[in-house]
UniProtKB/TrEMBL annotation:
Protein name: Oxidoreductase
Oxidoreductase molybdopterin-binding domain sequence ranges: 75-221
PROSITE patterns noted in UniProt: TAT
Entries under InterPro entries matching the protein: OxRdtase_Mopterin-bd_dom, OxRdtase_Mopterin-bd_sf, TAT_signal
Entries under Gene3D superfamilies matching the protein: Oxidoreductase, molybdopterin-binding domain
Organism: Streptomyces lasalocidi (Streptomyces lasaliensis)
SUPFAM superfamilies given in the database record: Oxidoreductase molybdopterin-binding domain
């Protein structure tokens, strides 16, 4: 069987393309040695190459922090402080709509934990900062019949969910910053979910909706086989060290 990254099913059945790709990558790595000033361009190349690397080998190269840039859609609209909105609705007494300025004005929590993707890559000690999801839920007034939270994204495709108990953990953030900088577009900015104790697919990028529901509704990847309860080291048949 091909070692296909399940997050990039479009690579399936293209083994020749992969060999060609790895050959190209080898030349790129030589370029770093020969001409360090090309590093920036190489990082940009590796950033996009990692998206298409089903072998995971790009993760071993100096590509600026070990993150991969994932999106299940081919393009995502850009949102900024003027255009971004986050809605909180569903089984709540006080539905709300937040601007970026609204979110920035709320108390911020900073956490430093490892990031672990279910496909294997891990990034040590990454600061995330934002508003505790529990604070937004409390502000909305969750009704007694509620049991879960569903997250939707302005890419128009991705979704995630948590039980209410998971959502209320203090290490679950509506994140505005990563690595002590405002969250950039590629990493899901201006606002993404950050679920520290779970595999990174739980941390929905380009977050636009928080809907309180009765039951957990499986998210995008969960519909395609990932575990709904995504604790790092205790799900998806993996034994990684916990992240939180
Ligand atoms: N909207 C959206 N959120 C997403 C994804 C995605 O494709 N779209 N991928 C998930 C997966 S599988 C991972 S590993 C992380 C990747 O985050 P990064 O691109 O900032 O490294 O985002 C998660 N959140
Ligand atoms: Mo992932």
């Amino acid at each position: 069987m091909d070692p296909v990254d399940p997050e990039h099913p479009e690579e399936r059945g293209a083994p020749v393309g992969r060999r060609v790709f790895l050959g190209t990558l080898g030349l790129g790595a030589l370029g770093v040695v020969a001409a360090p000033t090309l590093q920036r361009g190489l990082e940009a190349f590796l950033g996009s190459a990692a998206d298409k690397d089903p072998t995971g080998l790009t993760g071993l190269l100096p590509n600026g922090g070990g993150f991969r840039y994932y999106s299940v859609t081919s393009s995502v609209p850009r949102k900024n402080a003027a255009t971004y909105r986050l809605t909180v609705d569903g089984l709540v007494d006080r539905p709300r709509r937040y601007t970026l300025a609204d979110l920035r004005a709320l108390p911020q929590t900073r956490l430093v934990r490892d990031v672990q993707c279910v496909t294997g890559w891990r990034v040590p000690g990454t600061p995330f900062e934002g508003v505790r999801l529990s604070a937004l839920l409390d502000a909305a007034g969750v009704r007694a019949t509620a049991g879960a939270v569903r997250f939707t994204c302005f890419d128009g495709a991705y979704s995630e969910s948590l039980t209410l108990e998971q959502a209320r953990r203090p290490d679950v953030l509506v994140a505005l910053r990563m690595k002590d900088e405002d969250l950039g577009h590629d990493h899901g900015g201006p606002v993404r979910l950050y679920v520290a104790p779970m595999y990174f697919y739980k941390s929905a990028k380009w977050l636009s909706g928080i809907t309180v529901t009765e039951d957990v509704r499986p998210g995008y990847w969960e519909d395609r086989g990932y575990d709904v309860d995504a604790w790092v080291g205790r799900s998806n048949g993996r034994d990684d060290d916990p992240t939180s």
